[in-house]
From TrEMBL:
This is 2,3,4,5-tetrahydropyridine-2,6-dicarboxylate N-succinyltransferase. InterPro entries: Hexapep, THDPS_M, THDPS_M_sf, Trimer_LpxA-like_sf, Type2_DapD. Mg(2+) binds at residue 194. It comes from SAR86 cluster bacterium BACL1 MAG-120820-bin45. The lineage of its organism: Bacteria, Pseudomonadati, Pseudomonadota, Gammaproteobacteria, SAR86 cluster. Catalyzes the conversion of the cyclic tetrahydrodipicolinate (THDP) into the acyclic N-succinyl-L-2-amino-6-oxopimelate using succinyl-CoA. The gene is dapD.
Length: 333
């Protein structure tokens, strides 16, 4: 776990850190270059956060990176942030480093301790000129009008969009405002305009995302979230179960999912399946096996969940179909 991130921290008018971009992360026990950087940086640090005054002290061999770090704006500080063990988040620098670790795909969702994340991150205005403190935003708007300069406020939130920091290889994102920093997007993933991926959530392989991946939710490879579909998160509302979608599965348009779904499963369009939903289970010969709560079918493979159009009852049948993605839509070169 020991690692150190090299970050560019944006400092607001009040002197508080607003965000941190980590272009380089070094790991203890990583490959030779990474391990050497970690050891070099670790010797500079008495505390877990250190402001760097002399770029040469970082021993960075890449000349392009070194040059970029030598010409920083006055509101940008160069820092090192060290994480020695995975404990509750203590600082905004650590919070941003953990979000980067997930989006760089060093760690999968739900494998890092993100406790205290929301309390640590400030709510800021995300603009085309970077983050601005909310206490300063009205003055910034006035100044932009006076100078006839563009100031676009893209959102007011604790989380920025992923692509302002990291562009994952081999993905398509139709609307970048709908994918937060901390999202985990595997190569071959396509996120269409109505798709959404929260932090600490994402895809473990090529996937079509036209629905919502809530925080904590992971989607297996070759699976499809249809337009307007939704997965139940754990941030609010009382749900404590981590929802997942298995491999080769389909969540139909406007469907919803409140249980972990197994491999090769289908939830029909428009059906919201919660853990408490009463489901009649049928075997391969369409003989009823009784009624159970949906959460008893969690992580079971080869199921087709439908609502009987005559009785209105929710049924789980053996899924005889296979879900296949259109390869042409996922060769994101």
């Amino acid at each position: 776990m020991p690692l150190i991130g090299l970050g560019l921290a944006t400092i607001g008018a009040s002197g508080k850190t607003l965000d941190v971009f980590f272009p380089l992360i070094a790991f203890a026990g990583g490959d030779l270059e990474s391990s050497n950087l970690y050891n070099s940086w670790n010797q500079l640090m008495d505390d877990n956060i250190l402001e760097i005054q002399d770029v040469e002290a970082l021993n960075i061999e890449d000349k392009t990176t070194l040059s970029a770090l030598q010409s920083l704006n006055s509101n940008i500080k160069l820092i090192l942030c060290r994480i020695q063990e995975d404990i509750t988040i203590q600082s905004i620098e650590e919070a941003y480093l953990k979000l980067h670790l997930i989006s760089y795909k060093f760690f999968q969702p739900n494998t890092l301790n993100l406790d205290n994340l929301f309390n640590t991150l400030p709510n800021v205005a995300w603009t085309n000129n970077g983050p601005i403190e909310l206490e300063s935003i009205n003055h910034s708007i006035l100044e932009s009008k006076r100078a006839h300069r563009s100031l676009e406020i893209k959102s007011i939130d604790k989380f920025p969009r992923l692509t302002d920091y990291i562009v994952p290889p081999g993905v398509r994102i139709a609307d970048t405002s709908r994918v937060r920093l901390g999202a985990y997007l595997s190569e071959g993933t396509t996120v269409m305009h109505e798709g959404f991926v929260n932090f600490n959530a994402g895809t473990l392989g090529a996937a079509m995302i036209e629905g919502r991946i809530s925080a904590g939710v992971i989607v297996g490879k070759n699976s499809d979230l249809g337009g307007g579909s939704s997965t139940m998160g754990t941030l609010s509302g009382g749900n404590k179960v981590k929802i997942s979608v298995g491999e080769n599965s389909l969540l139909g348009a406007n469907a919803g999912l409140g249980i972990p779904l197994g491999n090769n499963c289908i939830v029909e369009a428009g059906l919201y399946l919660t853990g408490g939903s009463k489901v009649e289970v049928f075997d391969r010969d369409m003989v009823s096996q009784g009624v159970v709560k949906a959460d008893q079918l969690s992580n079971q493979d080869n199921l087709l969940f439908i609502r009987n159009s005559l009785s209105g009852a929710v049924e789980a049948r053996i899924n005889l179909k296979s879900v296949e993605l259109n390869d042409a839509l996922h060769k994101n070169q």
